Amino acid sequence: MTATKVITTRSPLDQDWPKVVRFGLLLALASVFISLIGMPQKLDGRIVVEPYISMGYLALLWLPVMLGYAVSAEKVLEGMVAHAKGAREVVAGTVVGLFGGAGLALLIWGLDTRDLSDPLVNWGDNLLELLVFDESVVYGVMVWLAISAGLGFVGGLLHVAPKAVTRAVIAAVIAVFLTAALESALDDISEGFRLEWLFEWLFERRGGLRPRGAVVIMVAATAYSLLGRTRTAAVKARYDRLENDDRKVANAGLLIAAAAATIILPLFLGKLTNELLANVGLFLLLALGLNIVVGLAGILDLGYCGRWLHHCDSHFSAVARPFTGVAVAGCPYHRGCGGSRGRSVHRCPGHTDAGGLSRYRHPRLRRDHPPHRSFRLGEWADRRCPGHHRHPWGTNLQDEYPRNRFPRSRTRSWRRPARRLLSRGLLLRRRHLHQLASRALSSRPRLDGGPRGRISR
Amino acid sequence: MTPSIRNRVAPRTGVDWFLTFLRVTLISVVVVGLLAFIGQQIDPNNFFASAVNKDATRLSWEAIKDLVVSGLSQGAMYGLIALGYSMVYGVLGFINFAHGEVFMVGAMTGMITSNKLADGGLWESNFVAAILIAVIVSVVCSTTTAVVMERVAYRPLRGAPRLIPLITSIGVSFFIQYTSALLLGPGAKSYPRLPDWLRDDVPVLGIEAKKLVVLVVAALAMGTLWYLVERTKTGKAMRAVAEDKEIASLMGIDVDRTIVTTFAVGGAMAGVAGILWGILFGSVTEFTGFLPGIKAFSAAVVGGIGNLGGAMAGGLTLGGSESLAPQLVLEPLGVPGHTQLKDAVAFLVLIFVLLVRPTGLFGERLSSEDRA
Q1: Out of B93, B298, B341, whose CB is closest to A383?
Q2: Do B166 and A371 touch (CB under 8 A)?
Q3: Does any CB of chain B come closer than 8 Å to the CB of residue A365?
Q4: Dist CA A265 CA A303 (whole Å)
């Protein structure tokens, strides 16, 4: 097999112009589209780095970099001729960026001279002011042309720069963006771990990263990209090399660690993060169920998540009455469930017939018929019980979840020892941690030469 | 084949028994309901009708005629949308769930155009010209949407397993729905007021004028499509690609271009259906395409997927059933809230047809790959 031959850099004007123009028009179209669906306006309140950039502007700024890079990206098969990257890629990126800037410039001109607020709801002065940075139209046009071309230039430059540098830059930018995007969750987590001081050091009170916070995160991400990445890769390679029993032990260890984290972490995380994780868990369960159905039965059960299990069980549980401590009573809608207390959800005849019909494969049915049939079954389920829609409990939202009707004593009885065990046995109770941390931070070296930082009572 | 294999009878499983029970139950319900309806039409106080439903009342023939016309006009729209499903299925072998949204785009652009024309005064002064312009704009927009959808979302997945484009089409469907909501604002948007001669209370040939318009336009569109598919070279290419892509390409047919044409024709039909929807119901939302889309797909399956005539007939069957069955079957049985169960009836019809005749009423037309 012959190796890929690298020949010299091509001339900057030796471009695939139709492709460059196509990408440029795509960028212009995408920029105008993003502006018109109102992303810049709606996300302008979310600051990434205060006072420099908001997510609203970021929604427009990432496009020239990406398309400026993509226009020159090419797959070179082994044995085929490859060209060295150089000024040609940078020029292509810049031209694509210019097209994007021109698209936004046209939009600014249109916003200034036409009124298309009917039917385009985001067309108006708000968008215009945002795009021209509260300055004149000419200023806005010039700035967008310059910014877009500059970012396209950066996109093209990513081909020329050494791989390590490219990786580091991308890691730094993504880290800053993710940190800013997850601000609320980080706030919540920092409260749980008593790290409010770190959060306040990194973030502005009004929202968004402080410049110093952004710099620290960029430096950390760059350092990880340059130094830590190889170690992570080495650990992963070592794990991949494990065989049989060693692998089983490693898997069991990971599973135990994940389970322990699932149990312990919610004690420290705040309400917001726990709700988020609860949702993640919910969808994970649904996805696992669907995955088993698809993987083992070979049927894409489209009615599974949306209708039968999520919808039906949610209604089922929501209206269930927890008499005598039994949380699930019976489905008042499905007469077939009998309304008997404590009957399992999975005994609901609706589920049984859904499963039965979905898996039933008539010899004439093609393999893609069952998913469609399942989808229809889901829709049918939605409509077959009029009570689902027109019952006094309401049409859409069941908000009478019987949370307060669980016997409190029972809840406490299992929670208390579990908490005690976790807090004492593992010494991870939040209050203790906080006390220990605050004392350690406030303590000073003792003059009598005692151990440094020791807590004196 | 050896005799032992030929004579072997597969044992009936629990599922088979359950399905037989389901078939018998459904047929029984329909028969008893119809008998009760006939009974109440003869005499609402007769023993059979009053035993089934104490509040039985006789339905006037005028009311029955209205139900039939409403069902057919709605069914004609389902049929037009179903043509798109059926054509794409015939050519690519997957269900384009986003086709309902192409219909919504047609209805939405029709609404925008007709409102602009109403602002300009053309809607009032020359309604025929105005609606023609609205139809052209809406057809162009829905066709463009369908073509772009094919180019961006489905062509890169041409060689992928069937489930991949299926899931992609659901994603495309959501994308179009929410793009519409973000661009044009969420909620219902109204068409301008129809001229007096198209209002509900003005009958033409004893039928509401706008429903007659819907039926006539749907019939014209169906006729045009039939001519395109059966009598032109493009249609022959489409049929060849639907039959076998490889052989078609060996015969010199540009498969990609034919697939794009199929999407475009399906989109055009959806655009026409969108405008008809606007005339019939007078308003449109970003979710307008969802339920009609699903029902149109059901219509395509009921008629026999891949079969264009079947799709139209399936649409009419489904529209007629969901209009008539609540009054003719459910109401005589004393089912409460029967008028609101028309969606359930539509899906029950589909399940019933799949249980009794899985190939659809008029039989499927499948590619050689699907038949294998």
Answers
A1: B341
A2: yes
A3: yes
A4: 34
Contacts of A184 (CB under 8 A, 6+ apart): A272
Q: Does the model's pTM come out above 0.90?
A: no
How many Cβ atoms are within 10 Å of A298's Cβ, its own excluded? 12
Nearest partner of A5 among A79, A107, A90, judged by Cα: A79
A371 contacts chain B (CB < 8 A): yes
Enumerate the residues of chain A whose CB falls inside 8 A of the CB of residue B23: none
- Residue B334 forms part of a structural domain: no
Identify the burial level of A46 via C-beta atoms within 10 angstroms of its C-beta, where 0-12 means exposed, 13-18 middle and 19 or more buried: middle
In chain A, residues with a C-beta closer than 8 Å to the C-beta of B166 are: 300, 368, 371
Domain extent, residue B268, equals: 77-289
Query: Which residues 279-338 of A have a C-beta within 8 angstroms of B?
Result: 294, 300
Number of independent structural domains in chain B = 1
Residue B100's closest CA among B166, B172, B150? B172
Q: What is the pLDDT of residue A453?
A: 35
Sole residue written with tokens 């047919």: B253
Closest CA to B276 of B151, B162, B161, B134: B134
Least confident of A246-250, B16-20, B52-56: B52-56
Q: Which amino acid is at B32?
A: V
Residue B27 lies in a domain: no
For residue range A378-420, list pLDDT tens digits in order: 554 444 443 433 333 334 444 444 444 444 444 444 445 555 5
